[in-house]
Amino acid sequence: MIPLLHDFTGARVLVFGGGPVGARKARRFAREAEVVVVSPAFADRDFGDSERVRAAPDPADVANWIDRVDPALVVAATDDEAVNAAIADAARERGILVNRADESGGRDPGSVVVPATIREDPVVVAVATGGRAPALSKYLRGELEETLSGAGEMATVCSALRSELKARDVAPTRRREIVTDVVTSPDIWTALRTGTSNCPQVIEDVLGEESTTDGDRP
Ligand SMILES: C[C@@]1(CC(=O)O)c2cc3[nH]c(cc4nc(cc5[nH]c(cc(n2)[C@H]1CCC(=O)O)[C@@](C)(CC(=O)O)[C@@H]5CCC(=O)O)C(CC(=O)O)=C4CCC(=O)O)c(CCC(=O)O)c3CC(=O)O
Ligand SMILES: NC(=O)C1=CN([C@@H]2O[C@H](COP(=O)(O)OP(=O)(O)OC[C@H]3O[C@@H](n4cnc5c(N)ncnc54)[C@H](O)[C@@H]3O)[C@@H](O)[C@H]2O)C=CC1
């Protein structure tokens, strides 16, 4: 399986199953997509900003639901294996992505695994184990959260710095050196994490140093 980032803005996601797992997937996709959850019962959970429809389609009905909702992705999160299998078949026949929550390895074409995710916007890190060990994905997410602290702010600094350097016609090789120095500087990481510096301040410091260096050149 190959990790990709998929933009679900304006897309629909159809979730079958209103248990804790269906709720978790609904919350996740509702960040961007229009989510519809179909289930005979809904656990007392947060389903995010999703539409809930009370129904218990049998395996022969799921294709009709998919055709009606016309989703980009279908999630099979019921506790009924025959229903989940029918959902996967119907999605595959229609070329729609499918996430089966009740399956680990041996996945079919078009199937999607939902990774454990760390967000430090705009930085995103996803962890998966090929479906083998979801508990490990969850554990590693916890570990990585600490490592990634400040990465969002660092991304903002790099992006603004690149624009500034381009605007000043700094040569591409020199631009790369400067950005690499910033991103590998333990002092800047610490300053961003502790809030003792911020994006405009870092950029002012770096550009100040760069113009001094320029001035020193023969
Ligand atoms: C294949 C996959 C399909 C998919 O759902 O996309 C899948 C499948 C299954 N999960 C099962 C169990 C558990 N899943 C979790 C947790 C998470 N599971 C997630 C993803 C995935 N789970 C995909 C693979 C990801 C990968 O490659 O690693 C996470 C990362 C993302 C999310 O779901 O949002 C989320 C953590 C989110 C976070 O906190 O960051 C926990 C831990 C807990 O609940 O505390 C347990 C109990 C402990 C255990 O069993 O490991 C079972 C057995 C059911 C049974 O029979 O009992 C199956 C089915 C099977 O394995 O056959
Ligand atoms: N991917 C993951 O992280 C995990 C996956 N699982 C798997 O996912 C499945 C769902 O997990 P839970 O939410 O904990 O189970 P659950 O049993 O609490 O919920 C299942 C939901 O499916 C609904 N349902 C039953 N028949 C349906 C139908 N025909 N159409 C639509 N909805 C229907 C039920 O009303 C219930 O709301 C489990 O059977 C298990 O195999 C379990 C734990 C974690």
Automatic annotation (TrEMBL):
Catalysis performed (reactions): precorrin-2 + NAD(+) = sirohydrochlorin + NADH + 2 H(+)
Pathway, per record: Porphyrin-containing compound metabolism; siroheme biosynthesis; sirohydrochlorin from precorrin-2: step 1/1
SUPFAM superfamilies associated with the record: NAD(P)-binding Rossmann-fold domains, Siroheme synthase middle domains-like
Entry EC number(s): 1.3.1.76
UniProt cross-references to Pfam families, sorted A to Z: NAD_binding_7
PANTHER family, per database record: SIROHEME BIOSYNTHESIS PROTEIN MET8
NCBIfam families, per the entry: cysG_Nterm
Protein's recorded name: precorrin-2 dehydrogenase
Gene Ontology molecular function terms on file: precorrin-2 dehydrogenase activity
Keywords: NAD, Oxidoreductase, Porphyrin biosynthesis
One annotated GO biological process: porphyrin-containing compound biosynthetic process
